[in-house]
Design brief:
With about 160 residues, the chain is an all-alpha fold. It contains 7 helices and no strands.
């Protein structure tokens, strides 16, 4: 450890150079490492976007519709990511934020699907219910997003960090 000494300023501020980093904050990797990182990122994102769709399709018995659902999930993820990155009006972060699906809603979607299936609904009825519920829930989320600044008084960073 002879080469890893810190100056007095670095030890006080905690800004010691990290010898394990390949790139620093403002560095740009070359085309080959950037391409491999991009491929790795895309493949990793496929798992998060496709897996909930496969679970919903297989558990609810939507066999013939699963390829359509997977294609739709990937397409909407791409559109959502593009809108987040390009920032269209007040919508979007203006930076690359992968938009995909979540496992958080899985139990609710499956419960709604099982209710329709239990009442003798066809796969088309199940899909119509799930799409309708998702459509209505999107408007609720949009409405709540307009008041998120007021919720910060109640839901503090300590709470959101632990949930």
């Amino acid at each position: 450890m002879a080469g890893l000494t810190m100056t007095a300023t670095e030890s006080r501020s905690g800004d010691a150079p990290n010898q394990d980093l390949i790139y620093q904050l403002e560095d740009r990797p070359g085309p080959l490492p950037a391409t491999f990182a991009a491929i790795q990122h895309v493949l990793a994102s496929f798992v998060g976007v496709i897996t909930p769709t496969l679970i919903i399709g297989s558990v609810l018995g939507l066999g013939d519709y699963v390829p359509y659902l997977v294609s739709m999930a990937l397409f909407v993820s791409g559109i959502g990511t593009f809108i987040q990155a390009k920032r269209i009006g007040p919508i979007g972060a203006g930076m690359l934020c992968l938009q995909g699906t979540s496992f958080g809603f899985l139990s609710v979607i499956l419960a709604a699907g099982f209710i329709v299936k239990g009442r003798g609904g066809s796969p088309e009825d199940i899909l119509a219910t799930l799409f309708g519920v998702g459509f209505c829930a999107a408007f609720v989320e949009i409405a709540v997003s307009r008041y998120i600044h007021r919720l910060r008084r109640v839901i503090t960073p300590v709470v959101t960090g632990t949930i």
